[in-house]
Structures are given as structure tokens and as C-alpha cells.
Design a protein that fits this description.
Helix content is 77%, strand content 0%. The chain is mainly α and 273 residues long. The longest helix has 33 residues.
Length: 273
């Protein structure tokens, strides 16, 4: 009779524990930053084919709105609101509308199962996809802002503030768009929610706030992109109050953190179903 060590028996607790220890050594937990970069690059290369039409549609829409508003707005604070709102609208078109459609289709087609099998944190998937889609908005937003300043005679000196406005407003709107796509039971509903959100960014962000009723102003304050619009619009004055600009950017960033956290939770919820 041969004696077999207990740790090699298939059903023994020692054998199971040893197997788990070896698996843990062979498959360490993926870190957030490298995973985020990998997902970002993959999404960027995947969406590169649609970059030119995407930029054209988003930019042409905002430029057309400014041309229409030029007939009813001469200058001053109203022109500042139109240019700032139209510039941020490019971000809303991509980060809110298209991202909601993408995650809605990804959930309906079973694409979330692919990401669930990868050793990447859920936050890396949401942040990587959101960052890739938001990256396409940079050229269109800059072109729209420059065209609007020339059209309405606004100064170009402080356009550098877009370096902060684009990522902060993009994060807030991308998190909202991803949550729409992941929580909607059907991709068609995700598309509707994304388009409604973009329409809200259009109506509440481009139109001057002074001409809105009090109830509409309250809804405008609830929209994440509003604070990015306000921060950008304040920089067109002769002496911008940078404390208010930084305050608006801080609120926009805080809303972005909350919306991306909600989108990450929605991804976990959709991935386990």
C-alpha cells in the first residue's frame, strides 16, 4: 500500500488552498492606471474610423446654432453665453449622446461579457471609454470657440481655459451618458435618453439664462455642463473674476466624479446580469 500526501488529494482542503495560492501568484490583480490606459488606447483606435464624420457633425451643429443666434444676439453677456454654450455642446454631443448609444449597444449585444472576462477594474472600462470619446471633442470645441469669438467680436485671450473646461465638462457628461446606456433596459431607450440629454444641453446651455423663467433656470443649474459653460463665459469679460471661474470648474469636476462613480456602479450592475 502506497502512502499519498494529503495536500495532493483532489478533494482535500490543503490541495485547494495550495491551488488558490499558486493562482494568486500567477494572476495578480490588475492596477487601475495601466488598465485604464489600455482600454483608452483600444477604444481610441476602434473609434478612429468615425473620427472625421463625428467631428464634422458635432462642430457643424454648434457653428450653425451660433450663426442662427447671431441674428437675435448682438453682443455682451448674451453673446458670451451663446459662444460658451455652443462650444460645450460639442462635448455634450459626443460624451453624452454617443456614449449613451455605445454602452446601450454594448450591453444589448453582450459586449459587456467580454470586458467582464478581462482582468481590468470596472472603473478602467468606464473611464477609458469616456476618455476616448471625449478626446474627439477637443478639435471641434476649439474650432467652435474660435469661430464664435470672431463672429461675435469676443476676445481670444483666455481660450486657454478650455484646457480645463473640456476634460471637466467631458467627465461630467460622459459619466451621465455611460450611466444612461448601462441602466437603460433597451438600446433604443439609451439612445432616446442620450438625445434628450443633449437637447437639454442645447436649450439650457446655449440660450442666455437671463431670458429663461425661474423654473427653467433651476433645471439649468442641475445640468452638469452648465458650470463648464459658466466658467468659460466668465472669461470673455474685460476683467474675469477667476475666483468664480475656479468655483464653477470645481463644481463641474465634483459632478464629474459623482457621475463617473454612478457609471462605474451601473457597469458592475449590468456586467453581473
Amino acid at each position: 500500500m502506497s502512502v499519498v500526501p494529503a495536500e495532493v488529494l483532489p478533494g482535500s482542503a490543503l490541495g485547494v488552498e495550495e491551488t488558490r495560492r499558486e493562482a494568486a501568484e500567477l494572476g495578480p490583480r490588475a492596477r487601475l492606471w495601466p488598465s485604464l490606459v489600455a482600454v483608452y488606447r483600444a477604444q481610441l483606435s476602434r473609434a478612429r474610423v468615425a473620427r472625421i464624420p463625428l467631428l464634422f457633425v458635432a462642430t457643424f451643429q454648434s457653428v450653425g446654432i451660433m450663426i442662427l443666434m447671431r441674428g437675435v444676439v448682438d453682443g455682451g453677456a448674451e453673446a458670451q453665453a451663446v459662444v460658451a454654450g455652443s462650444s460645450v455642446l460639442v462635448v455634450a454631443f459626443v460624451a453624452l449622446n454617443l456614449l449613451a448609444q455605445y454602452f446601450g449597444q454594448l450591453r444589448a449585444s453582450g459586449g459587456l461579457d467580454h470586458y467582464a472576462t478581462l482582468p481590468v477594474p470596472p472603473a478602467a472600462v468606464v473611464l477609458g471609454a469616456a476618455g476616448a470619446y471625449a478626446s474627439f471633442t477637443v478639435p471641434g470645441t476649439v474650432v467652435t470657440a474660435v469661430f464664435g469669438c470672431v463672429l461675435f467680436g469676443l476676445p481670444l485671450a483666455h481660450l486657454w481655459v478650455l484646457i480645463a473646461v473640456i476634460p471637466l465638462a467631458g467627465a461630467a457628461l460622459a459619466g451621465l451618458g455611460a450611466a444612461f446606456g448601462l441602466l437603460a433596459p433597451r438600446p433604443e431607450l439609451a439612445t432616446v435618453l442620450g438625445q434628450l440629454g443633449m437637447s437639454a444641453a442645447l436649450l439650457l446651455g446655449v440660450l442666455p439664462a437671463d431670458r429663461m423663467p425661474e423654473a427653467v433656470r433651476f433645471l439649468r443649474d442641475l445640468l452638469p455642463s452648465t458650470y463648464g459653460v459658466e466658467a468659460f463665459a466668465r472669461t470673455f469679460g474685460p476683467h474675469p473674476d477667476w475666483a468664480f471661474v475656479l468655483g464653477d470648474l470645481a463644481v463641474c469636476g465634483a459632478v464629474g466624479v459623482v457621475s463617473l462613480a454612478v457609471a462605474t456602479w451601473a457597469y458592475r450592475r449590468a456586467a453581473v446580469r
